[in-house]
Specification:
Elements (H helix, E strand, L loop, with lengths): L4 E2 L8 H9 L7 H9 L2 E5 L2 H11 L7 E5 L2 E2 H9 L3 E5 L10 H10 L3 E6 L9 H10 L3 E5 L20 E5 L12 E5 L15 H20 L5 H10 L19 H12 L1 H18 L16 E5 L3 H10 L2 E2 L9 E2 L4 H4 L7 H9 E5 L6 H12 L3
Parallel strand pairs: 1-11, 3-5, 3-6, 4-12, 6-7, 7-8
Antiparallel strand pairs: 2-9, 8-9, 10-13
Helix pairs in contact: 1-7, 3-4, 5-6, 7-8, 10-14
């Protein structure tokens, strides 16, 4: 049977992991202790990464009308985290053919908008921002700096500092298809010990726990039978029945406590993070060495990436060629400046706000680096790309 390849759909899971999630107990875990030692701050575990960002922002008690600067090429979850905390997101456009905003654009925006009080840096896919200059500008203007590690836990800046050890606060995501994948989860890390939150955490439902526990097994099965043609119908049926967690849940101002089950999975993933990063680096290096340079961004591909981005002026055609070869890469980070595009109305994004991000979102395509990508599969992906002239 032919093998199907996906960007997501349980990308970090195998059968052993799926069985483990079914029977893992709600045992006590050391995740908080591990993270507090690693990032030198007080840790609060949340059910979602966006809740971790929102928790940090809610703890700040900033003046009315305060604004939060975020990357203009990001996920709707970040936008919602800011608005649910009661603040206004300000989008900073990316530099041309790059994935992050620059220190220069931050400075220019601060000059025109004195209500910006917080800056969130996300280091998209693992490509680093100009963190030294950004931090310096934050200090000079008395702005709070948050590092969002949803894409890049365990990576380092060129300065040698690890991501998450520079800002005042750190937000982690353990959601599906992230570097640290525990099906769901997040962590808010308060490196500034004087700003600890006082909040009543809500509990997720028993139904949600059950859906999450079975998700890895469902995805392993879907990927296995997809080449038969049955897989997509099985996937569709599960989604209709609510047995597949939605990638974008409805905005909710509540902060949910992370049950021990997810925390234990995240701790296990952290324990093998170095090995996983080395494997991602190997696949990334293969892409970098073999893909025609015209498809590469103006970025420094020097460390492991959650996804390996390329640009193409005929994305629809290339995606079609991939599908014809049982490679499904249609789940694109990001297909809109505040993605996904199908939820564009929820972000109130206006055309022209971030022209570089708009252009990028229309041309970017992500190549998988997750554990289900072998060198043989990577070579197949490379061949299809390089045939596109």
């Amino acid at each position: 049977m032919k093998k199907s390849t996906f960007n997501s759909l349980g990308s970090n899971y195998n059968f052993a992991f799926a069985i483990k999630t079914l029977f893992l107990s709600e045992k006590n875990n050391r995740l908080k202790d591990v993270l507090e030692k690693k990032y030198d701050g007080k840790v609060f575990l949340t059910y979602k990464g966006r809740e971790a960002i929102s928790l940090i922002l809610k703890s700040l008690t900033l003046p009315a009308g305060s604004k939060v600067a975020i990357n203009g090429f990001t996920c709707l979850a970040v936008f919602q985290a800011v608005t649910s905390a009661g603040y206004q997101p300000i989008l900073l456009d990316t530099d041309k053919n790059k994935l992050n905003f620059s220190a220069k654009s931050l400075v220019e925006t601060i000059k025109t908008d004195p209500n910006i009080k917080v800056v969130i840096v996300q280091n998209t896919f693992g490509f680093e921002s100009d963190i030294s200059e950004i931090k310096k500008n934050c200090q000079q203007n008395k702005l709070i700096l948050i590092e969002d590690l949803a894409h890049n836990a365990g990576l380092q800046y060129k300065t040698g500092e690890e991501f998450g050890t520079v800002g005042d606060f750190v937000a982690l995501s353990f959601s599906r298809d992230k570097m640290i994948d525990a099906i769901s989860g997040g962590a808010a890390i308060f490196r500034n010990q004087n700003k600890l939150p006082e909040i009543d955490f809500a509990n997720i439902s028993l139904w949600q726990k059950i859906v999450d526990r079975f998700y890895p097994l469902h995805t392993v099965f879907i990927r296995k039978i997809y080449p038969t043609g049955i897989g997509k119908y099985y996937h569709f049926a599960l989604k209709k029945m609510g047995l597949i967690p939605k990638s974008m849940m409805a905005a909710d101002d509540k902060i949910h406590r992370l049950p021990n089950f997810y925390a234990a999975l995240a701790e296990d993933q952290l324990n093998i993070a170095k090995r996983d990063l080395a494997r991602r680096q190997k696949i990334g290096n293969l892409y970098l060495a073999s893909i025609d340079k015209k498809f590469l961004l103006d970025e420094n591909y020097f460390q492991p990436l959650t996804r390996f981005p390329i640009i193409t002026h005929n994305r629809k055609k290339l995606l079609g060629k991939f599908r014809a070869n049982n490679i499904f890469l249609d789940d694109i980070w990001y297909d809109w400046p505040i993605a996904p595009k199908k939820y564009a109305d929820d972000s109130v994004y206006q055309m022209g706000q971030c022209p570089n991000a708009e252009k990028l979102s229309g041309e970017i395509l992500n190549l998988p680096t997750h554990q289900n990508i072998s060198e043989e599969t990577a070579e197949k992906i490379i061949k299809i790309i390089n045939e596109e002239r």
